[in-house]
Amino acid sequence: xxxxxxxxxxxxxxxxxxxxxxxxxxxxxxxxxxxxxxxxxxxxxxxxxxxxxxxxxxxxxxxxxxxxxxxxxxxxxxxxxxxxxxxxxxxxxxxxxxxxxxxxxxxxxxxxxxxxxxxxxxxxxxxxxxxxxxxxxxxxxxxxxxxxxxxxxxxxxxxxxxxxxxxx
Length: 168
Description:
168 residues; alpha+beta; Alpha-D-Glucose-1,6-Bisphosphate, Chain A, domain 4; 8 strands
């Protein structure tokens, strides 16, 4: 990974929102593919040493991604991202929640509304993520340096995957 690529993680406590900007050394088509294909998501979308295991991914408005983050000991933490609006290679609006292994959303946590925007300039893709937390408790857990470090870790996994995909 080229460390000169943009990574910005900013916190807006008043609005319980986290903004993340990350640049990738790959074109938009490849980044979109990595962000929306179950087999590829499973290869990068977890902070090290965890891994992702997709149960189902139905990429359409009204569809959802149901997956688990799996610890090195094999413990699974389930989540479900419901897709509200998708503009191919431009934007995804999703509602994130914790769930059980059957995809039933946990009533213990309010959902996180998320907007992911994609744009390409000169063969590099900028991904801008806005996470708006419904719960102060969850926001306080995520507005930390450990979330920033974990997020950075799994985005570095995407860097490696994109490099592999580019060289195929």
